[in-house]
């Protein structure tokens, strides 16, 4: 496997204005030093920014996971039947809850993969769903 230098690296290795790099004037050399310093500072700032975004994404993921764990309440047929529901209704409620949970997990996973977790696009739809009358 061979590696080729990037166009920027090739450009830096070429003579400036037709002169060999060693023959640069002190003004040109100081200009290149300043440009190099600015580029290094910009690279350091961008590296810090990427690290911050990665850390923020990790924190959002942890917070969403904790929220999901806190809001999870097992719903099983036996508890519903003990609460007075008939077995068919209890089974339908458990099935509906399970399907809803799977849809929520799928959407959360998609939001993480596509990078919109924690944005306005990723708002919690449960309040809207709770306002709609249920078919059961």
Structure description:
- By secondary structure, the chain is an all-alpha fold.
- The chain folds into two domains: 22-72; 73-136, no CATH class.
- The protein is built from five helices and no strands.
- The longest helix is centred in the middle third of the chain and has 46 residues, at 26-71.
- The protein is rod-shaped and about 90 Å long.
- The termini are far apart.
- The relative contact order is 0.06.
- The model has no long low-confidence stretch (mean pLDDT 77).
The helix/strand class is mainly alpha
Into which percentage range does the β-strand content fall? under 5%
Number of strands: 0
What would the average pLDDT be, to the nearest integer?
77
Specify Rg, calculated over alpha carbons.
Answer: 29 Å
Low-confidence stretches: none
Tally of domains: 2
Distance between the termini: 63 Å
**SSE order in H/E notation?**
HHHHH
Task: Report the helical percentage.
Answer: 55-70%
Question: How many separate helices?
Answer: 5
Q: Mind describing the biggest β-sheet?
A: none
The gross shape turns out to be rod-shaped
Helix and strand arrangement:
Elements: H1 7-13, H2 26-71, H3 77-82, H4 87-114, H5 126-131
Question: How would you summarize this macromolecular structure in one to three sentences?
Answer:
The protein is mostly helical. It folds into 2 domains: 22-72; 73-136, no CATH class. It has helices spanning 7-13, 26-71, 77-82, 87-114, 126-131.
């Amino acid at each position: 496997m061979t590696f080729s230098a990037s166009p920027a690296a090739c450009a830096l290795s070429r003579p400036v204005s037709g002169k060999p790099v060693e023959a640069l004037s002190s003004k040109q050399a100081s200009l290149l030093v300043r440009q190099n310093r600015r580029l290094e500072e910009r690279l350091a700032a961008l590296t810090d920014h990427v690290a911050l975004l990665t850390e923020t994404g990790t924190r959002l993921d942890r917070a969403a996971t904790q929220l999901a764990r806190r809001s999870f309440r097992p719903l099983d047929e036996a508890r519903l039947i003990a609460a007075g529901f008939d077995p068919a209704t209890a089974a339908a409620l458990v099935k509906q809850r399970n399907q809803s949970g799977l849809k929520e997990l799928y959407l959360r996973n998609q939001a993480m993969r596509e990078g919109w977790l924690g944005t306005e696009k990723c708002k919690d739809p449960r309040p809207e769903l709770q306002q709609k009358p249920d078919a059961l």
